[in-house]
Design brief:
This protein is an alpha/beta fold and 281 residues long. α1 crosses α2. It is globular, with a radius of gyration of 18 Å. It starts with 11 loop residues before the first strand and ends with a helix. Bound molecules: NADP nicotinamide-adenine-dinucleotide phosphate. NADP nicotinamide-adenine-dinucleotide phosphate binds next to α10. The site of NADP nicotinamide-adenine-dinucleotide phosphate has 29 residues, from α10.
Amino acid sequence: MIGSRSVAAIGHGAMPMSIEGRPDEARSIATIHAALDAGVTLIDTADSYHLLAGEVGHNERLIARALETYEGDKDDVLVATKGGHLRPGDGSWTQDGSASHLIEAAEASRAALGVEAIDLYQFHRPDPRVKFADSVGALVHLLDTGVIRMAGLSNVSVDQIEEAQEITDGRIVSVQNQFSPAFRSSLAELRACAELGIAFLPYSPLGGIGNAGDLGKTNAAFQRIADDRGVSPQQVALAWELSLAPVVIPIPGASRPETIRDSAAAAELHLTEEELASLGE
Ligand SMILES: NC(=O)c1ccc[n+]([C@@H]2O[C@H](COP(=O)([O-])OP(=O)(O)OC[C@H]3O[C@@H](n4cnc5c(N)ncnc54)[C@H](OP(=O)(O)O)[C@@H]3O)[C@@H](O)[C@H]2O)c1
């Protein structure tokens, strides 16, 4: 569940289809369609998933086109976007967490997605130059004015989750932090979300774009189970993340139909207590 919306166990992170190394549009659309065919109902994006300075919203527009051309059932699809990061076009990621920027950015995301209201809008990353309460205040404004239906946070600490819940009167429905077999330091936020009933979306759940292919090589315990079960170590990683709490919804990135199909199948992989014990937490 994300707030009042029910979504499938595994989501689709759309970032690899718009940043460095992105594929052509036909392959990207085929990937999103493959995700939907596999039962994925959560697609994660951000206005900053683009390459060049003039391309803000590249990934959001791509998702809108993929949904437009999808012939299957898309009623339950939830598109989650984010604001607060910027890409000036030189490869860097900069930040603007000011309320005025977030309000303007959310309006632009709404237009890029071609929706009346954004299903889930996530504040991408606390900006050290802006009071966190001011950024969260923008989420309250966007909720109250109907630009967004639900609000979430990303790259936050337990203290920030609690502060945001106070400011929004308990209206934060999701937290997106980095979490994978090799990066477990967001376990405290995962646990806090489980206690508060907030969806926890592990990002880079396979270790990130450059490392995901080597997951089995760098995490031997995951490869062992994958060999025993005849599945990919990536599927084992996602199944392990799902086992940590019912609020966990991993969002593996994919730019090829076969990878998102494989990842989506992790929802059906149930690891035994013994297997889970060998993977730790
Ligand atoms: N909030 C934030 O600050 C933040 C930061 C980073 C990412 N994110 C979000 O999290 C999503 C996922 O993170 P990520 O893309 O950085 O890293 P990731 O999900 O750990 O890895 C993505 C890579 O994994 C490969 N892959 C996916 N499923 C696979 C499988 N079953 N077997 C083998 N390889 C597989 C994909 O390959 P192909 O490309 O070949 O399909 C892709 O390049 C992003 O798309 C984005 O939506 C958020």
